[in-house]
Amino acid sequence: MKRSEKADLIASMLEELYPETPVPLDHTNTFELLVAVLMSAQTTDLKVNEVTPALFAKANTPQKMANLPVETILNDIRQVGLAPTKARNIRRLSELLVERHGGIIPDTFEALEALPGVGHKTAGVVLAQAFDIPAFPIDTHIHRLAARWGLSNDTTVERTEKDLKALFPKHLWNKLHLQIIFFGREYCPARRHDLTQCPICSWTATKKRIAEEARR
């Protein structure tokens, strides 16, 4: 089966499984989304959602966050991975949002990626979910599943992003980003996964991939 045919069938299956795609990170405005996505690196969404209410109760705008001491931010987010670095980045990006953008979250990759702690994936999530700008943010779930499904060659996240953007229509990118994540969490774990029993891996994965995963 051609990659394009696989992609069409996968998109149909995911739409049937996940017609609604709520953003997993709790937020009430674009700034909160940006901070939450930044914090989600090497941390589960569940943990981020546990720590953000206390922080956002103190500061849910760039102006308010820029006035918080780094120690206060760190105290609220201490349970997330790389908390000291993230606390410094949250404070500094808040200052820069005020200085450069008048406290408004920018809507371009260039401007977002210029902020401390904001990489390409974080910027993509914000653009997709807050501004409805087509992006295809690649996290570990999507990178892994694209390789298992034979949609990409499993080398880099940059390559995976390029491959998936070529396979799927642009108007589906933002929703598919979340649908694939949801599917990975529910059906397609990283470890001890029997590809032959998976609703998608069972017919998309090559015999070589199935054998490799079985040996892990």
Structural overview:
The protein has 216 residues and is mainly alpha-helical. It folds into two domains: 3-20 and 138-215, Helix-hairpin-Helix base-excision DNA repair enzymes (C-terminal) (Endonuclease Iii, domain 2); 30-131, Hypothetical protein, domain 2 (Endonuclease III, domain 1, Orthogonal Bundle), CATH 1.10.340. The protein contains 13 helices and no strands. It has helices spanning 3-17, 30-39, 45-58, 62-66, 70-77, 83-101, 109-113, 120-131, 140-148, 157-167, 173-187, 201-204, 207-215. It is elongated and about 55 Å long. The model has no long low-confidence stretch (mean pLDDT 95).
Question: Briefly, what is this?
Answer:
The chain has about 220 residues and is mostly helical. It has 13 helices and no strands. It folds into two domains: about 5-20 and about 140-215, Orthogonal Bundle (Endonuclease Iii, domain 2); about 30-130, Orthogonal Bundle (Endonuclease III, domain 1).
List keywords for this structure.
2 domains, mainly alpha, 216 residues, single chain, 13 helices, Endonuclease Iii, domain 2, Endonuclease III, domain 1
